[in-house]
Each structure stands twice: as C-alpha cells, then as structure tokens.
Amino acid sequence: MFVYTKQYGLGAEEEAIFVRCVSVMGNLADQLYYPCEHVAWAADAKILHVESAPWWTLSTALWGLSLLLGIARSLWMVLKLRQRLRSPLAAFTSRLPQGKRRAVEAQIRSEALTLLSNLADLANAVHWLPPGILWAGRFPPWLVGLLGTISSLLSMYQAVGAGGQAYTAP
Fold this sequence. Notes:
Layout: H1 2-8, H2 17-44, H3 53-85, H4 88-92, H5 98-127, H6 141-159
Helix pairs in contact: 2-3, 3-5, 5-6
C-alpha cells in the first residue's frame, strides 16, 4: 500500500482535481489506518500496554473514511464517463469509435463494481463502530458475513478481468 501511495503521490496524472483530492485523502486515510490497527491488535495481544478500544475505533473510522472517499470517487467517475458517452457534442461530430466506446463502458462497469464493493464494506465498517453511531452493532452475524462475501466476490471478479470485458482497443 505504501508503494502505491508513494507512486501516486499528489495525483499529478489525474485530469480532474476532484479525483486527485479524493484519491490523495483516501491514500492518507489508508496509510493512517494500518498503524492504528496494528496498535489495537498489539494492545489486545498484551504486547503494548495501552487500551485497545480507542485504537480499534480510530482504525475503523479511518477505514470508513477511506471507503466514503472511494465511493465519492467512483460515483464521480461513473457520472463523468456516462457524460462522455452521452455528450451532445458526439451527436454533431463523429461518435466515439467502437473500441473506445467499449473501453469507456468497461471502465463504467469497473467503477460500478468498485462502488458496490465499497458500499458493502462501508455497511460493515459502520457496524463495527461503537454502539450509538448509525447502525453500529445492529447487524446479525449472517448479514455481516453476506456483506463481506459480496464485497470479496465483487473484488475477485474484478481481479480476474471481469470475464474478459476489460478489453481496451489499441
């Protein structure tokens, strides 16, 4: 994760300032999450002599923040990509070539799957926060498992190339 964050930097490659800012903030939340989670685990394992509950809460809140930022990014990307496909300018000029159109449609599907996966994870993240925050602690075990399974299956589907649909024309 650190290598990815270091390579991404401040997102100079991104065209949109919104995507750049949301991505950098998400990377920051991710980088802060890991040490907090490790401190919480070490406190539970009696390696560190600190109370673990605040560290678990902080790490879960950072996880939720990262997911919220990812959701905002994916929503923005889907909207912008759909605008590109439905641009009124495309009606007056030549439409997108078939290969590029397929690539944009594949990117929309990928962002939609990421969005759904992040939503399932966010529901679980809120569940693991301290009681009194939204629906924290109210999910039955089967629902926590179902949401985690849905998120994992969506992520695995994307990892294997979405069944060959991620084709991009030269």
